[in-house]
Amino acid sequence: MSPGDSNALSEATEVFNADGAGEVVILCEHASHHIPARYKGLGLAEADRTSHAAWDPGARAVSLALSDALDAPLVASRVSRLVYDCNRPPEAASAMPEKSEVIVVPGNCDLTPEQRAERVDTVYTPFCQAVSDVLAARKAKDLPTVLVTMHSFTPVYFGEHRAVEIGILHDSDTRLADAMLAEAPRLPQRRIARNDPYGPEDGVTHSLRLHGLENGLANVMIEVRNDLLRTPQDEAAIAEDLLVLLRPALAALKAGRQANA
Q: What are the coiled-coil residue ranges (predicted)?
């Protein structure tokens, strides 16, 4: 699937397969390292503008593969998370970070309230509105919905190697995460863990809370170590692995709903 296949495209957000009838809605908040010209590269070196600090390498490609396989709508940000991290609320310092790991972001230092508000209005609000529109359309059609957010993470963070390969993250609603983790023995070649390398205490479940919990939707955040996503073949293989976890987990949730109906 290419950008031209998206149902809706704006500077801030792209929506793919908006009318998908599958059970999953996918969000990819860190899909792009694009920095709009008005921000003048945030004062960063080119290498930093395209590094993992600026986006989640491979996450968009895996999201597109899952969207195709599950007939799932996908909402993806088209702006670097260093401009605005769509998985953070406006009041969070990390929404427009002055520093990401060891990278100082000059263009985010000493932002005025007006400058912060402009980024909220032009990046975060359109993303959230696109998600709300997709969810509202599905509710109007009475389509069962679960929320999946897709991310990748660096294998080395502050000099420490991360052994986990696939993280299954959740906030207070553990239903989908529990069901996926129950399938982890089907992927013995993968190191899969709960709330690793991040958890709710790190502030990473904002989208799950805002778009999932507040709408009563089962939800999960998936993190994949980005050294496993270096080529299109890698991305396709990880997408297949995630489907090994997701498909039976979705079936288990559906069976549970039917039993309680």
A: none
